[in-house]
Amino acid sequence: MATFKLEIITPQKVIYSNDVDMLITRTTEGDMGILANHAPLVTELAIGEMKIKIGKDEEKYFVSSGFLEVSKEKVLILADKAMKADEIDIEKAKKEKEVLEAKLKKLNEDRDIAATEHSLKEALTKIKIGETL
Predict the structure, then answer these.
(1) What is the CATH number of the domain that holds 15?
(2) 124 and 130 Cβ atoms separated by less than 8 Å
(3) How confident is the model over 37-75, as pLDDT tens digits?
(4) Which residues does the UniProt record annotate as the domain ATP synthase F1 complex delta/epsilon subunit N-terminal (predicted)?
């Protein structure tokens, strides 16, 4: 199977840089699979799980928002947040979830509600991904 270069970058650091067989990630349009020689593309990422396949091995990641760019040279993911599934602290994510749910009940401005709902969705997704390991 042909491979392609994948880079995952957050504002803090390069999370991943390697040749891969396949990438499956969540976009704002739905889940998307990328193979070598994919047509050029730029799309927005949604909060969700990303799977990287190399041979028979599969690595799972949490990704929160950002952009995916497919070019001839590589696939680039610029994510607000990204982490390998086995690095997720499930207990911390559950505590975040509880705090955010309580905060959400007290908010009354649309902007604050949207930001808190986004953070809550991140915590719930981390829990779901982390518990699948």
Answers:
(1) 2.60.15.10
(2) no
(3) 999 999 999 999 999 999 999 999 999 989 999 998 899
(4) 4-82
